[in-house]
Amino acid sequence: MAIKNDKNGMNRCPKCGATDVALNPKTGKLRCSFCRAEFEGKAVNAQGGIEDLVGDVIGEGATDIIPSEEVILTLKCPACGAEVVINTDEVTSAKCHWCRHVLSINEKMPNGAVPDMVLPFKLEKPTAQKDIEEFVKKRQFFAHPQFKKEFTTENIMGVYLPYMVVDANTHATLSGEAEHQTRSYTVGSGNSRRHYYDADVYDVMRDFDLLVDDLTIEASADKLNQNTLINTNNVISAVMPFDTENCEDWNPGFLRGYASEKRDTNIEALKPAVDLQIGDMARYHALESMKFYDRGVKWTNEKLDVKGRKWKAAYLPVWLYSYLEVKGDKKLLHYVAVNARTGETMGSVPIYKTKLMIYATIIEIIGAFLGVRWILFCLGLDTDDDNPFWLGLLGFTPGFIFYWVITNRYRNMSARHKHEKETKCELKNLKQSDVKREARKRLSSSRIAGENGTSVRGALSSKSNQKMLGEQLAKGLGVDQMFFGEKK
Are 195 and 185 spatial neighbours (Cβ–Cβ below 8 Å)? Predict the structure, then answer.
């Protein structure tokens, strides 16, 4: 039994004709609030294969947002004639306050508020609460006391967030050099001992079609900003991927009981990030044919030809816990997110930095003491033998390492959606060339110089976290000028 649409575009119960329908997360089906009948939504029409795509094929819900159109709309109820005013910044469905008829806005809002498809909630709130509680429970020791006092999962929200789901028909050509190790050996002794590698160098080329299936990217300007120095949006991205192949055609009934956020980003603004992510996928999948090159590859020329893309705007379901950390005039909104389809959980927990700094300082002092003792011990011995004097210098690093490890565990600043691995795609029509060019001797590194075969350029999060953490700890220890110089 499938949902029916009348001449006005209303989604009606196929049994009694009512329009007051909502998602039943236990079954994943729509349920009529009057007769309690349950029925399937309408599956998304695939409309041809990816390799047939040419140019940009844009779904109705993915068309450009019209900035001049009012967000305050008046809808006329087709059942009783009443007029209902809604703010599309806040809601994308409405109910007539006279006859309780659910108003359809599918054809009334060409301004980006209505997506092409929606992925219904699957995980219920108690399950999401348990996942969030277990995540936070593992991060209690250095959590901020105020956060521990105020933490509760009663206020978590089920939110449909806007995404763009992209299929792409692309062709990639990569060329460069790769190395295969032929020998590993050590020369010298004591402090003059050195380890070297010999390797054969090959000129390599990979040429192939890459068919990308449902690459998913945020379509909200706010969530696209994943600078982990100022926000925790990256943890929401990290709960991807979603099973977008199970999306249903847009139906406002799926949103009943959940919050939603309207898309505010157009396709042209998303194209650069999408193309970068496809490039990451091309490099990643090219490595499947390069296992012989155990020292890695350095691509010097990369060309990505995008023949066609299909864009679909989608609402995808997330359970969100949020906590606003306020410190003076600085504010940071922490999220713990649960993928409402898979249960994947990721989050950020406020850190009690005073406590963390005390522990890091103690560890640093102990490490420095032991490091100095080790250096003095080595100086009193024959350093031409197996007495690694330099190991004592490691004693000056454990406090920094401890601070970084704990901060990353609590804040998860490096968490992200690994689009290059987790996006479905197919590599076809592979052409390859491998020509030995020369042999290199006495190389000091175990990897090829300039290796970029696994580089990721389409990640949205900040790259400067480690430097920031090091500067914070150094300042707390009073050695910031020693390690980072004076501030200008």
Answer: yes
Closest CA to 111 of 70, 81, 50, 154: 70
Residue 455 carries which DSSP code?
Answer: -
Checking phi first, is residue 446 left (phi over 0); if not, alpha (psi -120 to 50) or beta? alpha
Q: What is the DSSP letter of 140?
A: -
Please confirm whether the linkage preceding 241 is cis (ω < 30° from 0): yes
From the list 181, 19, 1, 12, the residue with the least C-alpha distance to 94 is: 19
- In sequence order, the 6+-apart residues with CB closer than 8 A to the CB of 109 are 73, 88, 92
Question: What size, in residues, is the chain?
Answer: 488
Q: How many helices (H) does the chain have, and how many strands (E)?
A: 10, 19
Q: What is the pLDDT of residue 383?
A: 47
pLDDT at 143: 97
For every residue of 72-131, DSSP letters joined together read EEEEE-TTT--EEEEETTT-S-EE-TTT-PEEP-TTT-TTTTS-SEE----S-HHHHHHH
Please give the full DSSP string across 291-314, using - where no structure is assigned.
TT-TT-EEEEEEEEEEEEEEEEEE
Q: Report the alpha-carbon distance of residue 434 to residue 304 in Å, rounded.
A: 20
Q: Are 454 and 286 in contact (CB under 8 A)?
A: no
Residue type, 282: A
Instruction: Please say whether the beta carbons of 387 and 375 come within 8 A.
Output: no
What is the residue extent of each domain of the chain? 1-41, 125-348+412-457
CATH of 1-41, one of 1.20.120, 2.60.40, 3.90.320, 2.20.25: 2.20.25
Tell me how far apart the alpha carbons of residues 88 and 370 are, in angstroms, rounded to a whole number: 63
Q: What tens digit of pLDDT does each residue of 227-270 get? A: 888 899 999 999 999 999 999 988 888 888 888 888 889 999 99
Positions of the chain with pLDDT under 50: 1-4, 6-9, 68-70, 98-99, 106-110, 383-385, 387, 464-470, 472-473, 475-488
Task: Measure the CA–CA gap between 455 and 451, rounded to whole angstroms.
Answer: 8
Q: Give the alpha-carbon dihedral of 181, 182, 186, 192, to 10 degrees.
A: -60
Where do we find the tokens 């890459």? 210
Determine the 3-state secondary structure of 221 from DSSP.
Answer: helix
Q: Supply φ then ψ for residue 478, to 5 degrees.
A: 80, 20
* Residues with Cβ within 8 Å of residue 137, at least 6 apart in sequence: none
